[in-house]
Amino acid sequence: MEKRIIKSQQTGDSCIYVKHPSGLDIYICEMEGFSTTEALFGTKYGSINTMFKTNADTEYTTVPEGIAHFLEHKLFENEDCDVFELYAKTGASANAFTSFDKTCYLFSCSKNYKESLEILLTFVQEPYFTQESVDKEQGIIGQEIKMCDDNPEWRVFFNLLSCLYEKHPVKIDIAGTVESIAKIDAPLLYKCYDTFYNLNNMVLAVAGNVKADEILEICDKCLKPCEDKGLETVFPEEPDSIVKSECVEIQPVGTPLFNIGYKCSARKGYDNLKASMEAYVAAGLIADPSTELYQQLLSEGLINSGFGYEVFNGDGYFTLIFSGESSDAYKVRDAISQKIEEAKINGCDREHFERLKKANYGSLVRELNNVEAVANLMINSSMEGVEPYDTIKVLSEMTYDDVMNYMKNELSPEKLAISIVKGEA
Amino acid sequence: MIYKREQLADNIGYTAIVDKKFKTDVLSVKFITDLCPETNAENSIAVGTLATSNMKYKTLAELTSKLASLYGSSVYADVKKRGDIQVLSVGASWLDNAYALENEDITSEMLEIVSDCIFRPNADGESFDEASFNIRKNDLLDKIDAEINNKRGYAVSQAFETAFRGEPAEYSCYGKRAQAEASTSASAYKAYLELLKNAQIEIFFVSPQENNSVKEKLAAEFAVIERSAPKTYRFTSNSKAKAAAEYAEEKLDVNQSKMVLVFKSDNEDKEALKLMSTIYGETPFSKLFANVREKLSLCYYCASGYINSKNALSVDSGVETVNIEKAKEEILNQLEEIKKGNFEQSDIDNSLMSLDNALTAVGDVPSSYIGWYFGRFCEGDSASPEEIAEKYRAVTKERIIEAAKSLVLDTVYVMSPKEDK
C-alpha cells in the first residue's frame, strides 16, 4: 500500500494519499477543530462517457445518453432497502451527483462517520437493478428532465455548448432525453457499472473530523479488490471550429439571460489546470468589476452585478464563459470581444494582474477552511490528474506573459458564440 | 469556541464568536426593520449602495481593486425577510492576518473600509453618488423582474403572498417594481439615514482569535449617531388560517407543474412542529419523499419546511400536471397518518439524528455561526445548537401528533403549463 503526505508549500496545509491494494485512490484530510466529516466516493464516469471499451472488448460500446446519471439514481436502491434508510440510522446527510465527467456518492455528518463510510463503500459496490425498478426510474428522471427544461440558466448554458461543440457529448444534457433514457434497461446498466465502477477508476476523498487510520481500516474491510480492466473511453473527433455563433430560445423569463463562450483547446492534467487558471485570470483582466469594460457596461445598463465569468473544462472540452442578464447581450459580446482584441495588441495593466493573483490566492486559502470544499478539492484534482494543492502552486508561478500568451493564442473571435434565453417580445 | 454577546447601546447588540480553526474573519452588521411596502425597495437599494463605494473608494472599480489587493476580501449587502421583518445586512469577509504573504494588516484595513461604507458612504449629505446608486437600483429592478426565472422559488413566493395576504410577510423583502423605479439617490439616502437612526442593529463578528478592535471601532462610530428611542420588533407573528383553504392557480409556458401547500398552526410547541416537519418531509427518508416520490412516483421533489417566524409549514413539489390532484391527496394523506400516530419510534429517532447532524455542523462555517446566533436572538435567547438539540430530544410522540393536528391547510398554489405538455 503506497502512502504519502501531500503538503502545500504555500499554506502549510496537508492531506494523506493512499493507493489502496484494491486499486482505489484514497485522499484523507484530518481537519482539527472541525465537527463535520465530508466523504465522496466517485468514479470517473459522467455524461460524456458514452463510448468505451476494456481489454476484454474488441469493439467500442456506445450507450444511450444519460445512462451515467440513470445509474447514479439506481445505485441508491439495494436488494433489501433504499440506501437513505441506512443513512437514516447514522444521521448522515447523503446525496449523489453526476456531472459531465464524474459520478460521486457522498455524505456529510457530524457523528458516526465510520458507520456512514461503511454504508457508502458497501452500497456503491453492490448494484441491484431489476427491469421493474428501471421502468419506474424512467418516470422520475423524465420529470427531472422536464424540470431542467424549465430552468433558463440550464437552457442558456446547454444552448451555448451546442453552438460550440459539434460532436463532443458535452453538449448533451447530463440526464439525457426522455427518448434516450427509454433505451436503458437492466443489462445495459450492469454493463456500464462493471466497466466504470472498477476501483481502479475510482477515488475516495474524506475530510474533516476524521482519523486516517480509522478510515483505512474501514477501507480494508469493505473494499473488494478489482482487476484493472484497461478501460478506454473515446470521443468523436471534435473540430477546432464552432458549430454556429448564436442561439436564441424563448422562455417565460423576467430578464433575458446570456452565456458568451470562447471555445479553447482542451488539455489534460497539469497543463489543463495551468490553462484554466490562465484563462480565468485573463477573463478577470478583461472584465472583473474593477475594469473599464465592466464599468462601461454597467453604466450603460447592459449588465448588472450578476455578471461573471468561469472556466468550464474537462476531457475534450474547454470553454471560457461570460454570463449574466442583459437586454442587449449582443452589445455585451461585441464589447468583450473588442476589449480582448485590444488587449492582445496593447497589453493589460500589470498591477491589475498582481491584484488578481492575490485575490485568487485568498480564495484558494479560504477554500481550505471548509470541510466540504476540501473533500471536493481532493476528489476533483485526483480525477483531473493533478494534486490537491497544485492550484495554489500554479497560481504562485503564473506570470503576466503566461496570461497574455493564453489570451493571444486561445481567445479567438472566430471561436466565439452567444446563447440567449429571453421572454416573448 | 468563545461566544460573547453585549449591548453596545440601546438596540445595538454585538456578538463576538472566536473559533481558532478558521482562516477568515467575517463581519455582519444587520439592520432590522419592519417589512413595509413603502420602504422595502428603498431600504434594499440604500443598503446595496453602501456596499458599492465609500468616500475613500468612490467607485465600485476603486473599491473592487482595493479588496482584490487585500487577498480577495469582500464587502457585500444582503436583504432577507424573516416573518414580518426586513433584515438588511452589510457584511465583509477577509483572510486572517496570519495568511498574508507580506505581513499586511488585512483586518485593520478591512475594518476601515467597512466602517467607511456604513458611516461615510459616497454621498453629498443629501443624496448618494448617482453612479453607485444607479448600479444598485438597476440590480434591484432586474432582481424583481428575474424572480420568475427560478420557477420553484417563484411558486413558493406566490403561495406565501396568498397565505399571508394582509400581513407584512405578504411582501417581498425587495419591494415592488414601482417603488424601486420611483427611488432616487436622494430618497435612498434618506432611507439610509432612517435605518441608521431607527433600525434595531445586531452586529456579528467571527474570527480565529479575540479582537476587540472591531467592537471598539463600531461602538465609537455608532456613538455619534443620533439614535431614536428603542422600538421592539416582533420576530415571530403567527398568521391566522383562513376559514377555507384558498386556491390560486397560474398558467405559464412551463414543462413541469409546481404545487405549494401552506398550512398554519396556533400551537406554540415549536420544537414539536419542527420535528414533525422533519418526519413529514425534510429528509430523503421522510414520509413525503418515501411515499409521494419514491413509492408512488407522483413528484420529482416534494419537501416540507417549517417557517418558525410565522408558525406555518409549507410543502413544495414539482409534479406532472396529470398527477397534481393525486399528489395533493397523498401529501394530505401522509399528514393524516402522522395525526393518527401512524409512525414509528424509528421515524422519530432518525429525524432527531438528522436534526442533530445539522445542528452540530453549525460551528464549521463562520456564516453558519452568524445565522444560528441571529436566529436565536430573534427567538429571544442565546441557546447553543446542543441546547436546542436537547429540546428536540425531549419531544414526545404525543407532542408530534398534537403539532400535526394543529396544522390547518390555508393555501394551495399551482403553477401549470399553458397547454398540456
How would you characterize this protein structure?
The complex is a heterodimer of chains A (425) and B (421). Chain A is an alpha+beta fold. Chain A has two domains: 2-233, Cytochrome Bc1 Complex, Chain A, domain 1 (2-Layer Sandwich); 246-422, Cytochrome Bc1 Complex, Chain A, domain 1 (2-Layer Sandwich), CATH 3.30.830. Chain A has 15 helices and 15 strands. Chain A has a seven-stranded mixed beta sheet, with helices on both faces. In chain A, a hairpin with a 5-residue loop joins strand 2 and strand 3 (25-30). In chain A, helix 9 packs across helix 14 (390-397) and helix 9 crosses helix 15. The model of chain A has no long low-confidence stretch (mean pLDDT 95). Chain B is an alpha+beta fold. Chain B folds into two domains: 2-223, Cytochrome Bc1 Complex, Chain A, domain 1 (2-Layer Sandwich); 246-417, Metalloenzyme, LuxS/M16 peptidase-like (Cytochrome Bc1 Complex, Chain A, domain 1, 2-Layer Sandwich). Helix content of chain B is 43%, strand content 23%. Chain B is built from 15 helices and eleven strands. Chain B has helices at 40-50, 60-69, 106-119, 130-145, 151-163, 177-182, 185-198, 213-223, 270-281, 287-295, 324-339, 345-360, 366-379, 385-393, 397-405, and strands at residues 2-9, 12-18, 24-34, 74-82, 85-95, 200-207, 246-252, 257-264, 299-307, 312-319, 408-417. In chain B, strands 1-2-6-3-5-4 form a six-stranded mixed beta sheet, sandwiched between helices. In chain B, strands 7-11-8-10-9 form a five-stranded mixed beta sheet, with helices on both faces. In chain B, strand 1 and strand 2 form a beta hairpin. In chain B, helix 1 crosses helix 7 (185-198). The relative contact order of chain B is 0.16. The mean pLDDT of chain B is 95. The chains are: A alpha+beta (425), B alpha+beta (421). Chains A and B meet through helix 2, helix 4, helix 10 and helix 12 of A and helix 2, strand 5, helix 4, helix 10 and strand 9 of B.
